[in-house]
Write the structure tokens for this entry.
Amino acid sequence: MKKNIFTFDQNKCVGCHACVVACMNENGFQSTGLWRNIHVSDNLHLPTLPLFYLSLACNHCDDAPCIKNCPALAYSRDEATGAIIHHPEKCIGCKFCTWACPYDAPKYNPKEGIIEKCTFCNHRIEEELKPACAQLCPVGALDFMNTEFSNEKSLGSSPVPVDVSSKIRINTLRNNAGPEIDLNLFENLPIESAKEKQHKKISALDEWPLIIFTLLSATLVSLFASGITETFNSVHKGIYIGLVAFAAVLSMLHLGKKNRFWRSLLNFKNSWLSREILLFTLFFTLVFCEFYLFDLPNIFVSIIGLLLLFSIDMLYNIASWKWPLKIHSAQTIFIGITLLAFLLDSRLTLIFIISFRLTLYVNRNYINYKAKYLLSIIRIILPITAIIIGFENSYILSLILISLGEVIDRIEFYNELNVPDPLNDLKVLI
């Protein structure tokens, strides 16, 4: 089957940015995030590192993660050209597609509160013209063709280790050894440290609303599942519902178009973000009914709550995990179970879940060989020790200590996550 594809020859590209300028001339000025980017392997021009370029935009994948993960159904495919089209009037600006895309193609425009991206110059393809970027490449490094195409290595390797059947064929670098260099002349240059620098799309500082939202969701679910809410008076119920509203507001801080929040429920079939929002709405609607309208089985509502926590964790399956198993000690479901065991005064369950999570924590940090995590390990062990030893002596102190441990672990969770990014994967080739 013939498909429209980009071709890129790394041996020809000189990093002139003509393709970037051509894209802006054709589609308009892109002030907040260029639709096509030139990635450089050696920004510092260090002598032991090769210098080459990689021109990337949206590659209009057959198995497009942006379409699959967008909760608002703001993406569609033009079946005639194969282009992945973004519909700004449907976008809620949640930025989840920027995490999911391995090519960093969707760009968030904070001024408009929506995503923007390469259109494949769909209007030009319909007129049997090449996209502007390919048309105006002066050295023929970037080109466009309609040809038989499969995502096999014989046609060129992908710049990122994510199989999404992208429509780009890359002719990789030939072996260019170059002349020998006396490296003693460059002994003061930070060559090794330059290799270790990493671009991050996710960090705890940027995602603080999500940290609070996930911790608060786990707390509220565990409170209800423990049965404590059955003893609540009207004031306590009001505080509980107020915390639910606060959590909902925090989740909406992530949206660029908050008035379109209802669209986040539309892709329940494929998007874990849609499922999370739907389960959040369903769980707390049932809690409200339980509080003020009619009795509901605690077990039924609690199962919905646990599914909510599970859906939160599934959101991060798109990340590239640094550890062998896709299990983290700070996953929301583990936090909820830990708090539930504490609230139910189930000593054996609490000791088991804490021991399991501590094993995951220590093993993860051992694999990463990060000395800076030593303080965090100590800060986790101390609260655990205080809970086990003084569980019956000071309930409030134990609750504070375990909560402190959860906050520390959840912050590290966001700081350790890496979603697919061509900048980092380009460095793997160095």
